[in-house]
């Protein structure tokens, strides 16, 4: 009935899934509140729990695929070895700094599932936080860097 009650209910659900909610803070329902914080470990814990859920196939199939669609479409080249092997969701939050025209990238995150070159299935989350974008850096370039990290993990495992 209220945001507060909804967040408390969400806490109960996360705990029931086995997610440690200690490092998680939700200040709003849309992800843009300064109170919205989580860690890569908590994200992986939730994703691991989802992989055991009865609706996992539909959940995974709804995720963008690295190099194929969504904001991940251009995160790697068309010849990337990781192309089509990473199923993940991005999240981006930034603020314009009117003082000097830069942007503070408060968060750029990527979390999901990967099948590595050796066939190993991984659950992962990578976050970039509080990065002042200067010298040609953009949210897109940070996203490409996250794509490159996926390539390194894909090829190395």
What does this 3D model show about the protein?
This protein has 4 helices and 3 strands. With 157 residues, it is α+β, with helices and mostly antiparallel strands. Strand 2 and strand 3 form a beta hairpin. The protein has a 3-stranded antiparallel β-sheet, sandwiched between helices.
Estimated radius of gyration: 17 Å
- The biggest beta sheet, please? 3 strands, antiparallel
Unreliable segments (pLDDT under 50, ≥5 consecutive)? none
How many runs of DSSP E, i.e. beta strands? 3
Report the span from N to C terminus.
46 Å
What is this structure, in a nutshell?
The chain is α+β, with helices and mostly antiparallel strands. The protein is built from four helices and three strands, in the order αααβββα.
Topology:
Layout lengths: L2 H14 L23 H11 L5 H6 L24 E12 L4 E14 L5 E13 L5 H18 L1
Antiparallel strand pairs: 1-2, 2-3
Characteristics:
3 strands, three-stranded antiparallel sheet, 157 residues, alpha+beta, 4 helices, flat
């Amino acid at each position: 009935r209220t945001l507060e009650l909804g967040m408390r209910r969400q806490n109960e659900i996360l705990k029931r899934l086995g997610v440690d909610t200690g490092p998680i803070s939700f200040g709003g329902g849309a992800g843009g509140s300064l109170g919205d914080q989580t860690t890569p470990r908590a994200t992986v814990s939730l994703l691991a729990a989802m992989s055991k859920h009865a609706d996992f196939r539909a959940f995974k199939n709804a995720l963008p695929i690295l190099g194929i669609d969504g904001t991940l479409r251009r995160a790697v080249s068309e010849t990337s070895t990781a192309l089509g092997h990473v199923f993940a969701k991005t999240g981006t939050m930034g603020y314009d700094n009117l003082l000097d025209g830069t942007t503070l990238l408060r968060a750029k995150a990527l979390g999901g599932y990967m099948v590595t070159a050796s066939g190993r299935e991984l659950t992962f989350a990578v976050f970039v936080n509080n990065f002042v974008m200067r010298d040609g850096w953009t949210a897109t370039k940070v996203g490409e860097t996250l794509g490159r990290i996926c390539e390194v993990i894909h090829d190395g495992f």
